[in-house]
Amino acid sequence: MVTIRRTQQERREQAESALLNAAAELVVQYGVRSLTLARVGEQAGYSRGIVTHHFGSKQALLDRLARSTQAGFVPGLEELPPGLDRLLRLIDGYVGALGDAGTTHRAFLLLWAEAATASELAPIFRERDEAFRNDLRDDVAAAITDGDVRPDIEPDDVAVAVVGQLRGIGLQRLLDPHTVDTARLRHAVTDQWRQALRAS
Question: pLDDT (tens digit, 9 = 90+) per residue, 75-103?
Answer without folding.
Answer: 788 889 999 999 999 999 999 988 877 88
